[in-house]
Write a structure and sequence with these properties.
Blueprint lengths: L2 E6 L2 E6 L4 H11 L3 H15 L5 E5 L3 E6 L2 E6 H6 L2 H9 L10 E5 H15 L1
Antiparallel strand pairs: 1-2, 3-4, 4-5, 5-6
Helix pairs in contact: 2-5
């Protein structure tokens, strides 16, 4: 996973590839420099790896973070409200797909954990 961190006018900014832009937006807008929140999510990842939780959804102001043993999905709340699973299935059947790189993204759990550790170090 490629990323770049820099200091913007309103605080730290995470910039990721186009396919994972929503993850950068989530870090920048939802998490920011809140090191306690970053540490809490890293703790949640450890709990999933240790088998305490099978999966976990964390609702934020603008995004939903979904974690499981293999992967992480980040979806803007606006997308969740507009497109439920049935809508997505119907779009797939019709050969259509919903894609907005700033609203939806995913990656592997290990890559996400490494990103959060780097973000924590950058913000700390």
């Amino acid at each position: 996973m490629e990323y770049q961190f820099y200091q913007g006018a309103r605080g730290p900014v995470a910039e990721l590839s186009m396919e994972q832009a929503a993850i950068g937006r989530w870090l920048t807008e939802e998490i920011g420099a809140d090191t306690d929140r970053i540490s809490g999510i890293l703790n949640n990842i450890s709990q999933i790896k240790d088998g305490i939780f099978e999966a976990l959804d964390i609702n934020g102001r603008e995004f939903i973070l979904s974690l499981n043993r293999d992967e992480v999905d980040i979806k803007a709340n606006s997308v969740s409200q507009q497109y439920d699973d049935d809508s997505a299935a119907q779009m797939n059947e019709e050969g259509l797909n919903f894609y907005d790189s700033e609203e939806v993204a995913g990656c592997g759990l290990e890559d996400f954990e490494e990103l959060l550790i780097a973000w924590l170090e950058y913000c700390g």
